Amino acid sequence: MTHLVGRHSQIEAVEKLLSLARAGHSGAVVVSGEAGIGKTAVLQHAQQTAVASGFRVETSVGVESESQFAFAGLHQLCAPLLDRAGTLPEPQRAALGVAFGLHGGVAPDRFLVGLATLHLLAEAAEEAPLLCLVDDAQWLDEASVQVLAFVARRVGAERLALVFGLRDSGEGSGDRPPVAGLPELRLERLDEADARALLGAALHGPLDEGVRERFLAEARGNPLALLELPRSIPTGDFAGGFELPDVLDVPHRVEESFRRRSDSLPPETQRLLLLVASEPTGDAALLWRAVGLLGLAREVAMPAEQAGLLEVGARLRFRHPLMRSAVYRAATPPDRRRAHAALAEATDPQVDPDRCAWHRAQAVLGADEEAAEGLELSAGRARARGGVAAAAAFLQRAAELSPDPAARARRALEGAEAKHEAGASEAAQELLTIAAAGPLDALQHARVALLRAQVAFHLTRDGNAPRMLLDAARMLAPLAPALSRETFLHALDAAVHNGSDDVTHIAEAALAAPAADVPARPVDLLLDGLATTLTRGYAAGARGLWSAVDAVRASASAGPGRDPRSDGWLWLAGRTAVGLFDDDLLHDVATRNVQLVRECGALARLPAALNLLSITSVLMGDLARADELAAEAASIMEATGGVELRHARVILGGWAGDHATTTALSASTAQDDAHPDRGTDATQAQYALAVLHNGMGSYARAREAATRACTSPEVAIRCSSLTELIEACVRSGQPEDATQAMEEFSARARVRPTPWSLGLEAYARALMSTGQAAEDQYRAAIEHLGRSRMRGYLARAHLVHGEWLRREGRRRDARDQLRTAHELLSDMGADAFAARAARELRATGEHPRARAAQPTDELTTQELHVARLVATGATSREVGARLFLSPRTVEAHLRNIFRKLGITSRRELRELQLT
Questions:
Q1: d(CA 767, CA 797)
Q2: Residue 174: band (very low, low, confident or very high) from pLDDT cuts 50, 70, 90
Q3: 3-class DSSP assignment, residue 135
């Protein structure tokens, strides 16, 4: 066990992980450190321990040259388990099949592939505990990284453990942290005592003490250096001097040691090693064919095998990952090209066309159109499998090989678009520079401008991005009118999101753009409606917005012939429906948005859809449901490594009266330079603060927050904030400000009256009225809101009516209203408003009833979500597919649910009527 000297704590941690996994408590860990620090040794020990404990072990090793093949690392891990794919739900089975190239189909969402992988591993773990080992994770392809990181974050009650070996960045491993956020075991360099012990174990003869000390100093506690460097030194040199150190650091010294060992082998064996280094799959049949093409005999592998460098069997593999890079880097460019040429010729282009094209591209010297064309075809196949990152890599290399400048520019542009789509926006900028060198036609110039703007907005929320998008839209107008109009809408939405002063200018330009096709698409109607509203006022644009949102809803509800491109605008349609005070339209759009995203498995889009439905649930007074949706969105963002979406949480916090959460989220938004003061995120936070402080009776603070929220150019935020502003102004003694806000709100509410808008208008007028006029308005507010879905506002209407009645001295009438308000607000979890109702009730002489304990009060948010779904009759597998959990984890949640609720069956759960 000399290779594990000084690693006792890490070994104990890994063994504990395996013990927990065997008991049904899944886990994952990242073993990290510099090259040669002992990561592979720890993983090998984990494998030996697992096998001895009855685990099944599956492995995958990232290889630098393999990182261009989408899902290559994942396929390496899962291939032995694919006989269980028949147990997966059809969407998951299809996604996995397309991702692995087993059959054609629509490019799958990579997180649907992640869910399929999670369930596949869980199925295997039912038979025996399963250990998944992934070494050199820094070189995994991007698609595999995201899927495995997703799985690692979603494992729960499975008998499953995942262990990743990750080399530090800056050593040829790239800059991205592929499995960020997982528990980490950091391997540091050995202390002096352990280093001496390990060096002693590596030596087989006497060593001059001076040389020993220099050796220890050179190795600097790197275990692999201590084990490997002595092998590269002739025995005669041990007792007499050691060459002076050069400028290389330890990991490169380790590679240099491997290089020296391989250099001592016969030339034919070195050529074989270069073949193995150039073909990371280790496929023996393929490699032996390539060996024959180079005129070599199989026996040339024996010296490498005897030297402990190569394992020969069904696959040809190096004994240590650093050996591959050492051999490949040491080879001359002509030798590398010869190796790749042999591998290209040995690879069947019908069975594996992408690998054949890749090797052929590495074999050419200078530009080569045939090789570039092959890579371009590979890019198309990679994109069809959902491997956008791989498509980008193929296109980048194709651009480098293109002899024709126009073809080079076209491929660079397409590669840049793929890089941006894959999330590598900074890398996209580099390819854009190549593309911009041209020559480009007018449409390509416009696409370059569009992508520059999209990258700028994505990376930094650049304040210039809306104007850049506008310029791109204008360039596209005569060339691609449909794309131009979509770009105008993106520009307008970016300006609104940023709170830009360019909003009106962009809206005017959009109205002047070429007219939409006939019939107009939903996106065209949205563009016209928003642009009209922002330039000519709410009254002029609202009816057009109604038609637009209704068109988006109809398109999303259409049958198999519907245009799925409209689905991408459902989130904007939902936000717009809030500004139209159409609760039925909002409910339909928000619900359908989540449904469609779930059906197509677009997990990357699901958090935004869940956040919209969460906010909708808040307004409808179902704060518990809103909390479940927001929690699900947050868990998906955590599992996928996405950026936190705060708006649902902050609005939920405001309505729930959660002062700590609301103020903390608002403060973090205010401190983030990516969220300007008049931008959507900042003004949503101010709206939430206005609701919070109105609930708490801090009306001056509510007025301040609502005033800031009303600066938003977004229709939904401004409309929602006006009623909060009116209430805060009335209660803080600012009647003139209340009157001004009332005039604007009333004008909006009367454009196309709905029960929601009429109820809020009556609510606001009642606050500003006295005597019988106030009484009539309060009753009208309750009547109208009672006919809407907006129970939150209805409960608040009962509250303010009761408060007014008490101040009028009508204590008995006040009690009825306040009692109703208190019950509604308490049941929905609007604690600040409920506390206000309780105070008012006590002032009438009635003690408010404590909220009756509910059986579900002890359940966590996720347990409640699971319970609701199971109560509808869903199976554990169906619930797992919905919540991105394995069936075994769902079963574990159910056991906790049954224990907390004091029941023993799903039938009893259904009888509780949780839905």
A1: 10
A2: very low
A3: strand
Over residues 538-554, the pLDDT tens digits come to 999 999 999 999 988 88
Q: Does residue 239 register a pLDDT over 80?
A: no
Average pLDDT over residues 141-158: 84
482 CB neighbour count, 10 Å cutoff: 15
Closest CA to 573 of 595, 556, 596: 556
Tokens of 412: 């660079």
**Strand bridging mode 310-312 / 316-318:** antiparallel
Residues 6+ apart with CB under 8 A from 60: 73, 74, 76, 77, 132, 133, 134, 135, 140, 144
Confidence of residue 461 (pLDDT cuts 50, 70, 90): low
More confident call, 572 vs 1: 572
Decide: 515 and 553 in contact? Cβ < 8 Å.
no
pLDDT at 356 exceeding the cut of 70: yes
> Which residue would you say has higher pLDDT here, 693 or 668?
693
Three-state helix/strand/coil letters over 184-252: EEECCCCCHHHHHHHHHHHCCCCCCHHHHHHHHHHHCCCHHHHHHHHHHCCHHHCCCCCCCCCCCCHHH
- Rounded to an integer, what distance in angstroms lies between the CA atom of residue 799 and that of residue 830? 12
Instruction: Name 283's bridge partners.
Output: 315
* Residue 12's pLDDT band (cuts 50, 70, 90): confident
What HEC string does 855-876 produce?
HHHHCCHHHHHHHHHHHCCCCH
- Rg of the chain in Å (alpha carbons): 32
Q: Produce one character per residue of 93-114: b if its CB has 16 or more CB atoms within 10 Å, e if not.
A: bbbbbbbbbeeeeebbbbbbbb
Query: Are the beta carbons of 617 and 623 closer than 8 angstroms?
Result: yes
Kindly report the number of other CB atoms within 10 A of residue 731's CB atom.
19
CB 566 within 8 A of CB 522: yes
Of all residues in the chain, the percent with pLDDT exceeding 90 is 36
Predicted confidence at residue 909, as pLDDT, reads: 86
Numbers of helices and strands, H then E, in the chain:
45, 7
For the segment 621-641, what is each residue's pLDDT rounded down to a tens digit? 999 889 888 888 887 777 665
Q: What are phi and psi of 311, to 5 degrees?
A: -105, 125
Reading the block at residue 898, the tokens are: 């049954």
Backbone angles phi, psi at 140, to 5 degrees: -65, 150
The two structure tokens encoding residue 557: 């509800």
Sign of CA dihedral 98, 102, 103, 104: positive
For residue 186, list its beta bridge partners: 32
Tell me the C-alpha distance between 320 and 273, whole Å. 13
* Contact predicate 509/545, CB 8 Å: no
Rounded Cα distance, 349 and 343, in Å: 11
* Predicted TM-score of the model (pTM): 0.74
pLDDT of residue 404: 93
DSSP single-letter state for residue 58: E
Segment among 185-189, 214-218, 533-537, 864-868 with least mean pLDDT: 214-218
Q: 836: which residues sit within 8 A by CB, 6+ positions away? A: 695, 696, 697, 799, 803
Residue whose tokens read 């995994």: 140
